[in-house]
Design goal:
Layout lengths: L2 H7 L15 H11 L11 E6 L2 H20 L12 H18 L7 E8 L11 H4 L3 H13 L2 E3 L9 H8 L5 E3 L3 E5 L13 H4 L6
Antiparallel strand pairs: 1-2, 2-4, 2-5, 3-5
Protein backbone atom coordinates (compact mmCIF):
# COMPACT_ATOMS: atom_id res chain seq x y z
CA UNK A 1 0.00 0.00 0.00
CA UNK A 2 1.03 3.58 -0.56
CA UNK A 3 1.25 5.77 2.55
CA UNK A 4 -1.93 7.60 1.50
CA UNK A 5 -3.82 4.34 1.05
CA UNK A 6 -2.66 3.02 4.42
CA UNK A 7 -3.62 6.23 6.21
CA UNK A 8 -7.05 6.53 4.59
CA UNK A 9 -8.14 2.90 4.79
CA UNK A 10 -7.11 1.88 8.30
CA UNK A 11 -10.53 1.46 9.87
CA UNK A 12 -11.86 0.22 13.18
CA UNK A 13 -12.58 -3.51 12.82
CA UNK A 14 -15.18 -5.01 15.13
CA UNK A 15 -17.22 -7.57 13.20
CA UNK A 16 -14.51 -8.92 10.92
CA UNK A 17 -11.86 -10.01 13.38
CA UNK A 18 -10.91 -13.67 12.98
CA UNK A 19 -11.51 -15.10 16.45
CA UNK A 20 -10.15 -18.54 15.57
CA UNK A 21 -6.85 -17.88 13.83
CA UNK A 22 -3.84 -17.37 16.12
CA UNK A 23 -1.65 -14.33 15.51
CA UNK A 24 2.09 -15.12 15.57
CA UNK A 25 3.98 -13.48 18.39
CA UNK A 26 6.63 -12.16 16.02
CA UNK A 27 3.98 -10.31 14.01
CA UNK A 28 2.84 -8.40 17.11
CA UNK A 29 6.46 -7.71 18.04
CA UNK A 30 7.07 -6.30 14.54
CA UNK A 31 4.11 -3.94 14.94
CA UNK A 32 5.33 -2.76 18.34
CA UNK A 33 8.84 -2.28 17.00
CA UNK A 34 7.44 0.05 14.34
CA UNK A 35 5.23 1.79 16.89
CA UNK A 36 8.28 2.65 18.99
CA UNK A 37 9.49 4.94 16.19
CA UNK A 38 6.64 7.37 16.99
CA UNK A 39 7.37 10.74 18.65
CA UNK A 40 8.16 10.77 22.36
CA UNK A 41 8.31 14.01 24.35
CA UNK A 42 11.92 14.80 25.36
CA UNK A 43 12.70 11.34 23.99
CA UNK A 44 11.70 9.87 27.36
CA UNK A 45 10.07 6.77 25.82
CA UNK A 46 8.01 6.07 28.93
CA UNK A 47 5.71 3.69 27.08
CA UNK A 48 5.14 0.11 28.14
CA UNK A 49 3.12 -2.42 26.13
CA UNK A 50 1.04 -5.27 27.48
CA UNK A 51 0.04 -7.97 25.02
CA UNK A 52 -2.57 -10.35 26.38
CA UNK A 53 -2.97 -13.76 24.75
CA UNK A 54 -3.73 -15.93 27.78
CA UNK A 55 -7.35 -17.16 27.42
CA UNK A 56 -8.26 -16.61 31.07
CA UNK A 57 -6.89 -13.08 31.11
CA UNK A 58 -8.60 -12.25 27.85
CA UNK A 59 -11.88 -13.57 29.20
CA UNK A 60 -11.50 -11.52 32.38
CA UNK A 61 -10.77 -8.32 30.42
CA UNK A 62 -13.64 -9.15 28.08
CA UNK A 63 -16.06 -9.37 31.00
CA UNK A 64 -14.98 -5.97 32.30
CA UNK A 65 -15.23 -4.50 28.83
CA UNK A 66 -18.74 -5.88 28.31
CA UNK A 67 -19.86 -4.31 31.58
CA UNK A 68 -18.49 -0.93 30.52
CA UNK A 69 -19.93 -1.24 27.03
CA UNK A 70 -23.41 -2.05 28.25
CA UNK A 71 -23.48 1.18 30.22
CA UNK A 72 -22.16 3.11 27.22
CA UNK A 73 -24.79 1.68 24.85
CA UNK A 74 -27.53 2.83 27.23
CA UNK A 75 -26.10 6.33 27.51
CA UNK A 76 -27.18 9.35 25.49
CA UNK A 77 -23.71 9.54 23.98
CA UNK A 78 -23.90 6.08 22.42
CA UNK A 79 -23.13 5.98 18.71
CA UNK A 80 -26.61 4.89 17.67
CA UNK A 81 -28.25 7.84 19.40
CA UNK A 82 -26.20 10.51 17.66
CA UNK A 83 -27.37 12.49 14.62
CA UNK A 84 -30.90 11.13 14.91
CA UNK A 85 -32.18 14.13 12.92
CA UNK A 86 -30.04 13.20 9.91
CA UNK A 87 -31.49 10.03 8.30
CA UNK A 88 -28.42 9.19 6.23
CA UNK A 89 -25.89 9.73 8.98
CA UNK A 90 -28.18 8.02 11.49
CA UNK A 91 -27.97 4.82 9.44
CA UNK A 92 -24.19 4.89 9.69
CA UNK A 93 -24.36 5.57 13.41
CA UNK A 94 -26.68 2.63 13.96
CA UNK A 95 -24.27 0.32 12.16
CA UNK A 96 -21.48 1.57 14.40
CA UNK A 97 -23.71 1.06 17.45
CA UNK A 98 -24.48 -2.52 16.45
CA UNK A 99 -20.84 -3.31 15.75
CA UNK A 100 -19.83 -1.94 19.17
CA UNK A 101 -22.32 -4.30 20.81
CA UNK A 102 -21.07 -7.17 18.65
CA UNK A 103 -17.47 -6.68 19.75
CA UNK A 104 -18.48 -6.27 23.39
CA UNK A 105 -19.91 -9.78 23.33
CA UNK A 106 -16.69 -11.16 21.88
CA UNK A 107 -13.86 -9.05 23.26
CA UNK A 108 -12.62 -11.90 25.42
CA UNK A 109 -12.42 -14.15 22.35
CA UNK A 110 -10.17 -11.87 20.30
CA UNK A 111 -6.81 -13.67 20.10
CA UNK A 112 -4.66 -10.67 21.01
CA UNK A 113 -5.46 -7.70 23.26
CA UNK A 114 -2.87 -4.93 23.18
CA UNK A 115 -2.75 -2.25 25.87
CA UNK A 116 -0.22 0.56 25.37
CA UNK A 117 0.56 2.00 28.79
CA UNK A 118 2.37 4.99 30.24
CA UNK A 119 4.86 4.74 33.09
CA UNK A 120 4.66 7.96 35.10
CA UNK A 121 7.55 9.24 37.19
CA UNK A 122 6.48 9.56 40.80
CA UNK A 123 3.48 7.35 40.19
CA UNK A 124 0.84 10.08 39.86
CA UNK A 125 -0.53 11.85 36.82
CA UNK A 126 -0.10 15.64 37.01
CA UNK A 127 -3.20 17.69 37.74
CA UNK A 128 -2.44 20.19 34.99
CA UNK A 129 -1.60 19.77 31.32
CA UNK A 130 -1.24 16.10 30.43
CA UNK A 131 -1.05 16.62 26.68
CA UNK A 132 2.67 15.97 26.55
CA UNK A 133 2.35 12.71 28.44
CA UNK A 134 -0.42 11.16 26.36
CA UNK A 135 0.94 12.76 23.21
CA UNK A 136 4.05 10.67 23.77
CA UNK A 137 2.05 7.43 23.71
CA UNK A 138 -1.07 7.71 21.57
CA UNK A 139 0.76 8.34 18.27
CA UNK A 140 2.67 5.11 18.93
CA UNK A 141 -0.58 3.27 19.56
CA UNK A 142 -1.92 4.50 16.21
CA UNK A 143 1.33 3.49 14.52
CA UNK A 144 0.70 -0.01 15.87
CA UNK A 145 -2.72 0.00 14.19
CA UNK A 146 -1.21 1.13 10.89
CA UNK A 147 1.52 -1.51 11.04
CA UNK A 148 -1.09 -4.15 11.84
CA UNK A 149 -3.22 -3.08 8.89
CA UNK A 150 -0.24 -3.40 6.56
CA UNK A 151 0.23 -6.99 7.77
CA UNK A 152 -3.35 -8.14 7.23
CA UNK A 153 -4.47 -7.59 10.81
CA UNK A 154 -7.49 -5.65 11.99
CA UNK A 155 -7.65 -3.54 15.14
CA UNK A 156 -10.24 -1.52 17.00
CA UNK A 157 -9.42 1.60 19.02
CA UNK A 158 -11.45 1.62 22.20
CA UNK A 159 -11.19 3.18 25.66
CA UNK A 160 -14.44 1.95 27.22
CA UNK A 161 -12.53 -0.36 29.56
CA UNK A 162 -11.07 2.68 31.34
CA UNK A 163 -14.38 3.09 33.17
CA UNK A 164 -13.08 0.17 35.21
CA UNK A 165 -9.38 0.84 34.79
CA UNK A 166 -8.48 -0.40 38.26
CA UNK A 167 -10.18 -3.76 37.64
CA UNK A 168 -8.23 -4.28 34.44
CA UNK A 169 -5.04 -3.15 36.19
CA UNK A 170 -5.62 -5.85 38.81
CA UNK A 171 -6.10 -8.50 36.13
CA UNK A 172 -2.80 -7.45 34.56
CA UNK A 173 -0.86 -6.93 37.82
CA UNK A 174 -0.01 -3.38 36.76
CA UNK A 175 2.20 -1.36 39.11
CA UNK A 176 0.67 1.80 40.56
CA UNK A 177 2.82 4.03 38.35
CA UNK A 178 1.61 2.47 35.07
CA UNK A 179 -1.51 3.87 33.39
CA UNK A 180 -3.49 2.34 30.56
CA UNK A 181 -4.37 4.39 27.49
CA UNK A 182 -6.30 2.42 24.89
CA UNK A 183 -7.34 -1.18 24.30
CA UNK A 184 -6.51 -2.57 20.85
CA UNK A 185 -8.15 -5.93 20.10
CA UNK A 186 -6.04 -7.38 17.29
CA UNK A 187 -6.70 -10.30 14.94
CA UNK A 188 -6.48 -11.29 11.33
CA UNK A 189 -8.96 -9.37 9.22
CA UNK A 190 -11.59 -11.51 7.51
CA UNK A 191 -12.87 -8.92 5.03
CA UNK A 192 -11.74 -8.12 1.53
CA UNK A 193 -10.56 -4.55 1.85
CA UNK A 194 -11.31 -1.08 3.11
CA UNK A 195 -12.08 2.25 1.53
CA UNK A 196 -11.91 5.80 2.93
CA UNK A 197 -14.78 6.62 5.28
CA UNK A 198 -17.19 9.52 4.75
CA UNK A 199 -15.81 12.58 6.47
CA UNK A 200 -16.62 16.29 6.65
CA UNK A 201 -15.21 18.45 3.87
CA UNK A 202 -11.91 20.07 4.77
CA UNK A 203 -13.52 23.47 4.21
CA UNK A 204 -15.87 22.87 7.16
CA UNK A 205 -13.19 22.08 9.72
CA UNK A 206 -10.04 23.92 8.62
CA UNK A 207 -9.24 27.40 9.95
CA UNK A 208 -6.35 29.59 8.86
CA UNK A 209 -4.72 31.98 11.33
CA UNK A 210 -7.96 32.76 13.22
CA UNK A 211 -11.26 31.06 13.95
Amino acid sequence: MTPDELLTTTRTVRRRLDLERPVPRELIEDCVRIALQAPSGSNRQTWQWLVVTDPDQRAAIGAVYKKACEAYLESQGAAGKLFADDPERSKVQQRVHDSVAYLADRMGDVPVLVLPCLKVAGGRLPSGNQGGLWGSLLPAAWSFCLAARDRGLGTAWTTLHLTYESEVAEILDLPDDVYQSVLLPTAYYTGDGFKPAPRQPVSEVLHWNRW
